[in-house]
Amino acid sequence: MSESNLGGKRAGAGRKPNYNEATKVVRIPESRVIEIKDYLKTPKKGNEIDDIRQFNPVTKLEIPMVIERVQAGFPSPAQDYIDKKLDLNEFLIHNENATFIVRANSLSMLNAGIDINDALVVDRSLEAQHRDIVIACIDNEFTVKRLIVDVKGCWLKAENEGYDDIHPVDGQDFEIWGVVTNVIKKFR
Q1: Which CATH code of 3.40.50.620, 2.10.109.10, 2.40.160.60, 3.10.20.30 fits the domain covering 30-56+95-184?
Q2: Residues with catalytic annotation?
Q3: Do the beta carbons of residue 139 and residue 152 sit within 8 Å?
């Protein structure tokens, strides 16, 4: 038998480490592979969206919900009556497979109540409609804006006078990535 040069370890062969740490296998839908690879390759440079994570409601936490509503004006007598328990997963998430949490990274939507570091709950399964707050991808950069649909087409409105609206032009990559359904804001 002749000796083969095939097989075995070869210098420079195999996958090259991109990071100096252990890696982890992640299962994603086949239809999303290219999109996710493109996102991972996109250089991060002060985009308005920071830290996109898929929502994974693995725990169930029920929080007591008081039956009485709180007055924003003149206070009313308090009632110590708990109506039921509220699960935040059920309250915030309608389609867990298409829901992501995204952190805002600018003040362009300040007048809509979205501040820097607010967590935006984004549902990709919803079809965006006029006046929805959406996550859009424009030339491979994410932004959060209000979708305006008019006779000329659709454009993105900033909810802060210090920021420009975005009117996509021909040849520009423009995609509505998802609809913002909730904002999670910390006060303390």
Answers
A1: 2.10.109.10
A2: 108, 145
A3: no
